[in-house]
Design brief:
36% helix, 11 strands, globular, Competence protein ComK, ComK, alpha+beta
Length: 179
């Protein structure tokens, strides 16, 4: 179904192509506007429902991802979420995730950002699209950096585990060769 040139979907899973998830009000309903690299959609779900459903799709829960963020970088207020770390799908909220005005931004797609009039921030994405968000420049930068910290720490952990596995594999191969 199409509404005002947007494709309307009943559900949605965040992917590497998802850039931003915005609240969208339509006929007294709380929906979501999703902007992807190659299109925009209206989804008949709230943004937090899309984030939660996406976490489940990739094998975890939103609660589990929040607990992981707390364990890894100690953030509990407006935590960035590693929806799917292997595919580098990290998002961060602009307000409390339960706030109906909360926007979720994909960390990998942010190209640049700048303060705008009032207490807003304009975010430019890698595909030349942009959005003006109701978040102060300072808060936006803070959220962006927290997400970068989470990405870095998880990446370091995954690389360390991979190195350990390669070492153990080589040790096992050496043992077989010496036998």
């Amino acid at each position: 179904m199409k509404v005002n040139e947007f494709i309307v979907l009943n559900d949605f899973i965040v992917s590497r192509y998802t850039m931003v998830i915005l609240p969208h009000h339509f006929h007294d309903h709380h929906y979501t506007k999703v902007i992807e690299e190659d299109g925009e959609y209206i989804v008949k779900m709230k943004p937090i429902e899309i984030i939660s459903r996406s976490c489940y799709y990739y094998g975890s829960s939103l609660k589990g991802r929040k607990e992981g963020t707390k364990e890894i970088i100690g953030i509990t207020h407006k935590p960035p979420i590693a929806i799917e770390p292997l595919n580098e799908i990290y998002v961060f909220p602009t307000t409390s995730p339960n706030d109906i005005r909360c926007v979720w931004i994909s960390h990998m797609h942010v190209l640049k950002y700048e303060p705008s009039r009032g207490d807003t921030t304009t975010v430019y994405f890698k595909n030349d699209k942009s959005v003006c968000l109701d978040i102060s420049y300072y808060s936006f930068v803070n959220q962006l950096y927290r997400t970068a910290q989470l990405r870095t720490k998880l990446s370091e952990r995954m690389e360390a585990r991979e190195r350990k596995m390669q070492y153990l594999f080589r040790m096992d191969q050496t043992k077989d060769w010496l036998s």
